[in-house]
Amino acid sequence: MYYQSTRNSDLQVTSSVAIAQGISADGGLFIPSEIPKISMEELKALADMNYAERANVVFGKFLTDFTPEEIAYCTSHAYHVKNFETEQIAELTGAFDNAYILELWHGPTCAFKDMALQILPYLLTTSLKKNGEDKKVVILVATSGDTGKAALEGFKDVPNTEIMVFYPDQGVSSMQKRQMATQEGSNVTVCALEGNFDDCQNGVKKIFTDHAVKEKLANAGKMFSSANSINWGRLAPQVVYYVSAYVEMAKRGDINFGDVINVVVPTGNFGNILAAYYAKNMGVPIGKLICASNINKVLTDFIETGIYDRNRDFYATCSPSMDILISSNLERLLYLLTDGDDKQIREWFGKLSTEGKYEVSESVKEKLKNDFVGGFCDDAETKKTIHDFKEKYNYTCDTHTAVAVKVYQDYIAQTGDKTKTLIASTASPYKFSASVLEAIENAESNADEYAQVAHLAEISGLPVPQSLADLQNKAVRFSEVIQKEDMENYVLKKLNIIA
Ligand SMILES: *Cc1c(COP(=O)(O)O)cnc(C)c1O
Fold it and tell me: What is the mean pLDDT of residues 355-383?
């Protein structure tokens, strides 16, 4: 197996090169040349393994130029109770009628991004070593709030790496901002941008693919890579938890091996749900992939009409990690659905950047609808869902997970589908305490952040994650806000490449 660019199928590299580079030089995303299979026998065999061992099996199928020892080194360091507050790593809850919540937020930064970003530094440094690359890697990150912190935690003080994170100044929760502004480590930089997440992502992508910048970096003995979900090293780890959750459900007797489940994913950049699509196509019995959006419902419309149109108002919501109008990983799905038609992908994504819009072919529309269901809800519905779910089941979910729960409930109401369903829970409610409290109590709170956290602990009964509790006494290290036009200069200055 090799990895090709979604914009040039002839470009072929190994998985370690794809991970080291992050994004292809032509602006395309790296994608495996085939989807490896996992048989029912193999799935059954996973039942007796822990999470890291299950990850070894899945990685072995995707990272074909890594040795088993290299893979085991990465997984055993990342998926360990010293990094996650639960031994299961990804914690499967009991049933809420036919729904099971997969809590992906027991890592150090309390969002699902840790599932991939705890292991990415190991995968990346191993990839560099394998390829004899001695340049220092500069990780540039655009974040809508959670990726940045998870990447900072993953890469802090990792030798031979440097990490720079850009986030939208007005686009993250106060806990998210505090997490990033107080980040420790000698190789980290955090900077806010006057703009939204798409501005951050476009800026980073532009710097990445600029040849002149690349050359300047190379002359200084450095190279860029990405910790965003455009990096395959982010995607592969996400496939693992869908495989593992299925096995766990069967092991517990929630389902029998072979039974089909549906999966609901609160979606922004389309990385998480794409991982579920890969799990399905590997052979995990998954039926519908339900793509849940907030009011920035560009994906709901796309699944419905086949027209991707980012020319619309952008809303800052109470589920900020999904406030995105350009979902990067959709490019990988479309490459798969067109059987690798790189010319077609270049045309559509060219249109996206010039006109902000493209329409896919009839055959792609049909394939999309076979696998995916789209739905969305607004902030009022999100909060009502948090409230009602807590009242009915005494389970407190965060704002992003609540979007998924609501879209799932709407889907059930419309279809009567009784299939057992896995709902991806992407963040701890403590990361969005203000919104969650407001939802549960039907009243806005003026208390300070930590009073809110304490109050939420009382009414939810959930322990406060240690990492969030510790933030209260940490000093702010980063408070700069820059304009989007200044990103490139800012990066080059920080790297001491220009004065
Ligand atoms: C990143 C994020 C999402 C969106 O995930 P994608 O892979 O970008 O679709 C949803 N919820 C939370 C809490 C997140 O941090």
Answer: 98
What is the predicted pLDDT for the residue at 174? 85
What confidence category does residue 447 fall into, taking pLDDT thresholds of 50, 70 and 90? confident
How many Å separate Cα 260 from the centre of its chain? 24
Cβ-contact 37, 22 below 8 angstroms:
no
Question: Residues with Cβ < 8 Å from 195, sequence gap 6 or more?
Answer: 168, 169, 483, 484
CA of 146 to the centre of ligand 1 (A): 8
Ligand 1 pocket check: which of 109, 400, 407, 432 to mutate, most ligand atoms within 8 Å of Cβ?
Answer: 400
Q: Residue type for 348, please?
A: W
Asked if 326 and 357 touch (Cβ cutoff 8 Å), the reply is no
Distance of CA 425 from the midpoint of ligand 1 (Å): 10
**Position 499 pLDDT exceeds 90:** no
pLDDT at residue 197, as a whole number? 87
Return d(Cα 62, Cα 78) in angstroms, integer: 18
- Which sign does the torsion angle of CA 452, 458, 460, 466 carry? positive
For residue 221, the surrounding DSSP H or E stretch is none
pLDDT for 209 equals 84
Query: Across-strand partners of 137?
Result: 161, 223
Q: How many CB atoms within 10 Å of residue 257? A: 15
30 contacts 18 by C-beta, under 8 angstroms: yes
Q: Are 16 and 233 in contact (CB under 8 A)?
A: no
CB 310 within 8 A of CB 326: yes
Q: Tell me the CA distances in angstroms from 154 to 50, 161, 255, 389, one per residue in order.
A: 22, 11, 35, 33
Q: pLDDT tens, 162-200?
A: 999 999 999 888 889 999 999 999 999 999 999 998 899
pLDDT tens digits for 275-332? 999 999 999 999 999 999 999 999 999 999 999 999 999 999 999 999 999 999 999 9
**Angle 318-359-404 from CA coordinates, rounded to 5°:** 25
Q: How many CA atoms lie within 13 A of 296 on its CB side?
A: 25
Asked if 123 and 238 touch (Cβ cutoff 8 Å), the reply is no
103 Cβ closer than 6 Å to some ligand 1 atom: no
User: Residue 144: pLDDT band by 50, 70, 90 thresholds?
Assistant: confident
Q: Is the pTM of this model over 0.90?
A: yes
Q: Is 197 in the pocket of ligand 1 (CB under 6 A)?
A: no
Tell me how far the alpha carbon of residue 322 lies from the centroid of ligand 1, in angstroms: 6
Q: Give the ligand 1 atom nearest the CA of 275.
A: 7
The residues facing 472 across adjacent strands are: none
For the cut 90, the answer to whether the pLDDT of residue 236 exceeds it is yes
Backbone angles phi, psi at 145, to 5 degrees: 135, -45
For residues 481 and 193, is the Cβ–Cβ distance under 8 A? yes
Atom index in ligand 1 nearest the CA of residue 229 equals 7
- Rounded Cα distance between 342 and 125, Å, is 30
- At residue 325, φ and ψ (nearest 5 deg) are -110, -15
